[in-house]
Amino acid sequence: MIKSNESIIGILAHVDAGKTTLTEAVLYRAGAIRRLGRVDKKDSWFDSHELERSRGITIFSKQNPFTLGEKNFTLVDTPGHVDFSAEMERTLGILDYAVLVIDGAGGVQSHTETIWSLLKEYNIPVFVFVNKMDRDGLDKAALLAELKARLSEECIDFTQEKSALLEEASMASEEMLNAFVDGCDDEMFWQKSISDAVYQRDIFPCFFGSALQDKGVDLLLDALQKYTVCKEYPAAFGAHVYKILHDNQGNRLSFLKVTGGALSVKMPLGEEKIDQIRIYSGEKFETVKEVSAGSVCAVAGLCGTYPGEILDGGGLKSDKPPKLKPLLAAQVILPDGVDIHTAYRKLCILGEELPELSVRICNFSNEEQIQIQVMGRIQLEILKSLVEERFSMAIDFGTCRILYKETVASPVMGYGHYEPLRHYAETQVRIEPAPLGSGITAKSECSLEVLDSNFQNLVITHILEKEHVGILTGSPLTDVNIVLTAGRSHLKHTEGGDFREATYRAIRQGLEKAENILLEPYYAFTLRVPSGAFGRAVSDIQRLCGEFDPPEMTETEVIIRGTGPVSKFMDYPEEVVSYTGGKGVVSLRENGYRPCHNAQEIIEKIGYQKERDLENPSSSVFCSHGAGFEVKWQDVDQMRHIK
């Protein structure tokens, strides 16, 4: 094992929590930058892109090394706006620690809870900084109570007196508790014990201050120096790709963290090799010959990498799929005279950097058009500017539409037969409902006496390799378990693609017989309005088909938490600002998919014609007298060979 000499720290927050201001303060205090920039003055160090400065928000993740005492760190700044949360999530796989910034005036927001759950999912130790404590009327004790209630009971105030801090921290382990009871005052023991507890996510140190006023920042930096530990990594090479970018000269850069061994210039990776290694500090960089395990860098020379990819000396594999996914789609409207395929190739370059876009050419009503997926409308506005800047192409977008999904209500059998001349494969599957949010899983219950293991594995691969679509709206199938129950091959005539055809057709034929359910995305919302607007708020939630918990009421405002369809709530934030005169706010976060509240209306509106979907046939192909012929799905069960 190799011990790293640095830690990667990400700063994350809900939009407008003061994350960028804290980032500036940390780098300035650590001596990494020479002056403090400000978001309102449009001169912050990290938000250097014109789009970021004009809007006052972070859009692109960036990094900057700094040193505290004898410890080396790289700070990764991430977007706070929910529309760019996919960019934020891509950085989580490389972080050793995170600093979660909370707006002291707004408290824990819905998106804050989303970030917290992601940090738990990725098992990242967290320091919490409650910002904007210079504002009048803020109650530190009440905010700490909210952190404990909404995030974790293990959130501990590290700005309290030492004896009280150690008493609370000692509950993290029996060894620490015994030491506290015995009156242990060994500074090294407590530093190591607290560091271990933070690393194990048994303690979440909390700090209260004002980044703008440079209050509390020194305590946070002192804690990062004292209570972080450098990881150990394998001696064999490994790396995690978390971002793809193209620089101003068009060079394709793969941003990655080395997770084992070392990475050096001219080092081969598969059929490619590293041409250049860059260490970035904001927009600037220096080139180096080698990077050791635990460090982040950007490399040139790799053309096939993608965010989330795990690299090693031998092969490639993907990391876990992202949790945050787009809920909306839109058509790209091209300017007159621009060829759709030329535009598609350019947009695919942007799609490498922002894979959540899922850029594709679709055929609707016999007309080709480019479709993209987005997290929200603000992202569309940013994309328009990016495409104009990068490709000198003035695109626009059609109306955003909701990304629906489909599932089944009860188990159903599906059968696929593929037997044109000199080909043969049969697949029988059971499609059964699975818990909401589970996606598609696959397994085999087929006997090896019925179908060879190699073909069984092939069928499982085909089940999982494709985005299968439902028959109600042509939306992606999800939340099902697909079980291979039987299959047949031919000793002479079964070829590689035969089971692919049979498997796809079996799934589709099963869906034709199933009770299908249309799913729509939901938001979890936190609505804060003045007390006088409580009646209007409740009326609105009911009108928007939402549900809510008992409200929290103070002397001046009402806080309502609940859930509701994205299709109904996506425009509600602007409405809240309007009817409260800017005194109310609603924050929204993705909350999974549920049965559509107006399914029949949506099915009729989309008007999906399953018979015309030639890429997803439900029929089977049988053979008679040396020629293949098609059999419609409703007749397949009577002709199948598997009984």
Q: How are the SSEs ordered, and which strands pair?
A:
Elements: E1 2-3, E2 6-13, H1 19-29, H2 50-55, E3 62-68, E4 71-77, H3 85-92, E5 97-103, H4 110-121, E6 126-131, H5 140-150, E7 155-157, H6 162-169, H7 174-181, H8 187-199, E8 204-208, H9 217-226, E9 232-233, E10 238-246, E11 252-260, E12 262-264, E13 268-269, E14 272-273, E15 276-281, E16 284-288, E17 290-292, E18 296-300, E19 309-312, E20 316-318, E21 328-333, H10 340-353, E22 360-364, E23 367-374, H11 377-391, E24 396-397, E25 401-402, E26 405-408, E27 412-418, E28 425-433, E29 440-444, H12 453-465, E30 480-489, H13 498-513, E31 516-530, H14 534-543, E32 547-548, E33 552-553, E34 557-565, H15 566-569, H16 572-579, E35 585-595, H17 599-606, E36 620-624, E37 627-631, H18 633-639
Parallel strand pairs: 2-4, 2-5, 5-6, 6-8, 7-8, 29-30
Antiparallel strand pairs: 1-9, 3-4, 10-11, 10-19, 11-18, 12-17, 13-14, 15-16, 15-18, 19-20, 21-23, 21-24, 21-25, 22-23, 26-31, 27-28, 28-30, 31-34, 31-35, 32-34, 33-34, 36-37
